[in-house]
Amino acid sequence: MIKKILIANRGEIAVRIIRACREMGIQTVAVCSQADKTALHAQLADETICIGPAPSSESYLNVSRIISATLCSGADAIHPGFGFLSEDSRFAKICEKCNITFIGPTAEMMAQAGNKAEAKRTMQEAEVPTIPGSAEAVTSVVKGKKLALKAGYPVMIKASLGGGGKGMRVARNEENFEQAFVTAQKEAKNAFGDASMYIEHYIEHPKHIEVQILADKLGHVVHLGERDCSIQRNHQKLIEETPCESLSPELRKAICKAAVKAAKAVNYENAGTVEFLLEPNGNFYFMEMNTRIQVEHPITEWVTGIDLIKEQIKIASGQPLSFGQNDVVIRGHSIECRINAEDPDKKFRPCPGTIADMYLPGGPGVRVDSAIYSGLVIPPYYDSMLAKLIVHASTREEAVRKMQMALGEVIITGIKTNVDYQYELVNHPDFINGKTDIDFIEKLKKSES
Amino acid sequence: MELRYLFKKAAFVNHSTSKENGEDINKPSAPEGMLCKCAKCSAAVFTEEVSKNYYVCPECEAYFRMDARTRIKSITEEDSFVEWDTDLSIKNPLGTPGYEAKLQGLMEKTGLDEAVITGIGKIGKNETVLCVCDCRFMMASMGSNVGEKITRAVERATERKLPVIIFACSGGARMQEGIVSLMQMAKTSAALKRHSDAGQLYISVLTDPTTGGVTASFAMLGDIILAEPGALIGFAGPRVIEQTIGQKLPEGFQRSEFLLEHGFVDAIVSRKEMKSTLDLLLTFHSADKSTLGSKVVADIAKNASKANANTVSSNSKAKKRKNSKLSAWDKVCISRQKNRPVADDYISAMFDDFCEMHGDRYFKDDKAIIGGIAHIGGQAVTVIAEAKGKNTTDNIKRNFGMPSPDGYRKALRLMKQAEKFNRPIILFVDTPGAFCGLEAEERGQGEAIATNLYEMSTLKVPILSIVIGEGGSGGALALAVADQVWMLENAIYAILSPEGYASILWKDAKRANEAASEMKLTANDLLSLGIIDRIIDEPETMNEESLEGVATNLKEQILSFLSNSNSLLGEDIANKRYERFRRM
Fold it and tell me: Do B371 and B275 have their domain in common?
């Protein structure tokens, strides 16, 4: 069993990991940058090592310093959290070489799942649905039309050298394919001097659905249900919930089964997430695999009663999973809101500063994962997430009300936050009625302006 | 009080599953050789990362010492290097006890036969002779075999008309070989002199550390001397100097940057850019390229001259109209305008691959003069310019375009180099005058200018000088003893400033305006006096934006000048230049 863990991260996830370790009787070593000496994780751990100046490249991303700190402190494992080095296969490889247990998948799995093109190929071989489309580029309308039919309308036609929306057109049916193809190709030729085009099935108004996976070293893989993370601003998730109410039991089963297949296809171990795009008609497609713990893991923990961080540590120690798929039961509904230090009035610009005062809600079914306290200086160098507010209730309706109530109680003064913005979102009829998809925030922006 | 002192922390459990046996094996540790320590910042860094980063510390950018084979690999084309003279027999001229055994041991340990690897290889498309010292072998001190290998390599290069590149690093002479080691300094220097007299190129690259007898011989004799950043370079080591004079030496003393500032190094080149820099320098000097280049120049010039014939005639009409509006004093003011393009702008607008060379090799690198090698129309040329700045900071650095003696000596050094390699010289004049100050007099301002006039008169390569702004007196003439002198339409060229003229003649500097018109300092005046040969048109407002048009026109004219000069013999060029000034 692991005796001492170095947490190669900061903020609420570092605090979350320290707390899990405490419960398991494992010693903790925090690392911090010079800008983070007063950060909660640095104050809470059993030992803290300052590993360098404020910029991440000289501290939380500096592999040699983190390895040195691990060896000096006598820790036998590293938990990478999320972000920073969590998906750096080179880092995982070095840990392996130094006989340090990396709490996560092996470097090989990480590299395999992290390479998008390769991952797509692996998934196709494993019969996990991927977005249908041309493997090779085409230049003629006739060939393009054949591929479009195969991919299924509507299709996206895009320049192989494309970027910035140039040389991109959607064709909704066979009739307007030719025109769309010719226009896109002309644009591509002018902009990039290349007329070869890719054709791919175009997914309109999808939902972002991801499935939590746990896999041990012995090859046991279980899923812990799905999460709906469709509410995103510029690809940043804002609100996540589980279960996804628009999934029928059959569809849920199919998606979760596909996720387990995907994990098995790469011989995955430890906690991971398989992301899918779900079309309104119920078709779903593999997007990518995240080989780390996710920000939104607490909602899964709440509906399953399984502590994912502890499971990660147990798996890394070589223990087999203590439960099977049938033991996993989803109870009630859980929602998470991310609270960030950013100014919604100024294009969500990060707003570092000092927290003057704060009040965070509590009571039954309310959980706050945070690393903030009154008087803490939020440095400008890192991610702006301050806290995660998570609620749980027996039904979605109750959970939504609980979230509205809890967000209404959050008070953070001294810096600008997105609390009010989130409050508006959870009071929006579309959210209340569960009618959100990936374009929800975009549509809101348009209706406002 | 900080939270850490208030938190009650839970005690941890002692997981004692498999305590004693096997614990040590499983204990995390870094495998041998995975990490190494940077000698400068003491950081533990990954060896692999260091080697991928050209052996530069990823933390502090200090340079790790590089062994000779890695160095050769990093700069030559794959499999192109052929090693020479690996079988010289061990010599112990003074019979120093234990010396042979020591050499034998080092040979086994390093896999080298001596402290230098010599041979022939390719950098880009250029074949070159290479000598690379390896400081793992007795600090690359110069034993007789080191001297012998270098000398043989240089001799072969001379014979085959190939360039030589030597990567120097050395502690100096080899004590065990005493006076015989000292003689290697003379031997290698003599071989390099023959190589130079045969018109061949030698590039010296100084790496950490280059000291003692090596500095006082082959290392400092390059036509071009490059250095790696932060390398220790000096004759007497810093410790010896400190002990001798009993003084603490300043920070950065004897480092590459110090040598650059003091004019002994042409450029500091990072390892990442070393190969491409050497490739470019060799290309500048390759025989094919220069003939090919001059052909390209001729072609371009032919087309340009046709087009030009029209523009010149139409321009001259426009000129008359425009010029009538401006007084001589107006032009003085225009020539000094802050936003008027400076030499730097002309160089980047008209030349490709400009490679700046620094230093006079005596005392200083004067930033009021910039010089180097560049391509124009595919032909290599030496470009030297009096450089003003564009803002106050820049101007302080460039001393407001007023060169010191060191600047003129740098210019002359580069012009002599151009002559050696048969490269035309393009000069840009833009100075209020030579720097007038204590230091300039101490180091011989008059002597420096005089020497330039004297030496430039017989250079056997084409020289074109273009006055782009102010042509202030002797300070300007020191870069204007040329085959042709051209002026921008609103540039000026005079015996001294109008202010100075007025104060000498009329004891009143305020009458500068009046002086300007009497002095005949405008381009038109000077053309009619036969002092200059051509006027380059200017747009109404001359700034960075309008420079493009001027530069295109000027470049065409330069190409046609080069095309006409390329066919002339060196002697004839020098004679014509003599006649040009003889007439005045």
Answer: no
Taking only the tens place, the pLDDT of each residue in B426-455 is 999 999 999 999 999 999 999 999 999 999
**Can you read off the two tokens belonging to residue B161?**
């008309």
Counted domains in chain B: 2
- Please report how the helices A89-97 and A107-114 are oriented relative to each other, as an axis angle in degrees rounded to 10: 170
Q: Per the CB < 8 Å rule, is B2 touching A67?
A: no
Does the pTM exceed 0.80?
A: no
Which among B285, B304, B334 is the end of a domain? Answer: B285
Q: Does B44 touch chain A (CB under 8 A)?
A: yes
d(CA B234, CA B231): 10
Q: Which of B4, B27, B29 is the closest to A43 by Cβ?
A: B4
Q: Are residues B361 and B271 in the same domain?
A: no
A292 and A106 in contact (C-beta within 8 Å)? no
Instruction: CATH number of the domain at B273, please.
Output: 3.90.226.10
List Cα–Cα distances, B18 to A103, A218, B14, B23, B26, in angstroms: 20, 21, 11, 7, 11
Q: Which amino acid is at B59?
A: E
Would you place residue B314 in the very low, low, confident or very high pLDDT band (cuts 50, 70, 90)?
Answer: very low
pLDDT tens-place string over residues B468-491? 999 989 999 999 999 999 999 999
| Cβ–Cβ under 8 Å, residues B417 and B384 | no
Do B266 and B319 reside in the same domain of the chain? no
The tens digit of pLDDT for each residue in A49-90 reads 999 999 999 999 999 999 999 998 999 999 999 999 999 999
Alpha carbons A330 and A303: distance in angstroms, whole number? 5
- Cβ neighbours of A38 in B, within 8 Å: 2
Told to judge if A292 belongs to the known catalytic residues of this protein, a careful annotator would answer yes
Q: Which residues pair with B369 in a beta bridge?
A: B386
User: What ipTM was estimated for this complex?
Assistant: 0.76
Domain of residue B450 covers 288-582
Query: Residue B543 corresponds to which amino acid?
Result: N
Domain contains B34: no
Partners of residue A40 in chain B, C-beta under 8 Å: 3
Domains of chain A and any CATH numbers: 4-103 (3.40.50.20), 141-201 (3.30.1490.20), 207-448 (3.30.470.20)
Residues B315 and B275 in one domain: no
Q: Using CB atoms, pick whichever of A2, A46, A76 lies closest to residue B9.
A: A46
In DSSP notation, B142-190 reads B-HHHHHHHHHHHHHHHHHT--EEEEEEE-SB-GGGHHHHHHHHHHHHH
A-B Cβ pairs (cutoff 8 Å, strict): 67
